[in-house]
Specification:
Radius of gyration: 13 Å
Structural class: alpha+beta
Largest sheet: 5 strands, antiparallel
Shape: globular
Helix content: 10-25%
Strand order of the largest sheet: 4-3-2-1-5
Low-confidence stretches: none
Distance between the termini: 23 Å
Length: 93
């Protein structure tokens, strides 16, 4: 099923785009809110999240886990980091 519109009708949509070699920026969105997010991937593959608009801890932690899993998979498969990470979760934060 294709994504229609900017916001999900329910749940949480996460979209992060790699801008540079090891930094992702984007947003997490619900039906009525959105939060800007940034993830920095360190050389040892640790992920540090920032949110200038103070996203809830649950949203920041979910985004960090998504990025961490993508980083680990890329390293194990000896591939570059993905350019775009996009996920949808059925549960609102």
């Amino acid at each position: 099923m294709a994504i229609v519109g900017d916001r999900p009708t329910h749940g949480l949509r996460l979209r992060l785009v790699r801008d540079g070699t090891r930094r992702y920026t984007g947003a997490a969105m619900t039906r009525d809110r959105s939060w800007e997010l940034a993830a920095d991937v360190e050389d040892d593959d640790t992920v540090t999240m920032t949110s200038p608009c103070a996203a809830p801890t649950e949203v920041i932690e979910y985004a960090r886990r998504v990025v961490r899993i993508a980083v680990r998979s890329a390293r194990e498969d000896e591939r570059p980091l993905p350019r775009v990470l996009q996920r949808w979760r059925d549960r609102d934060p």
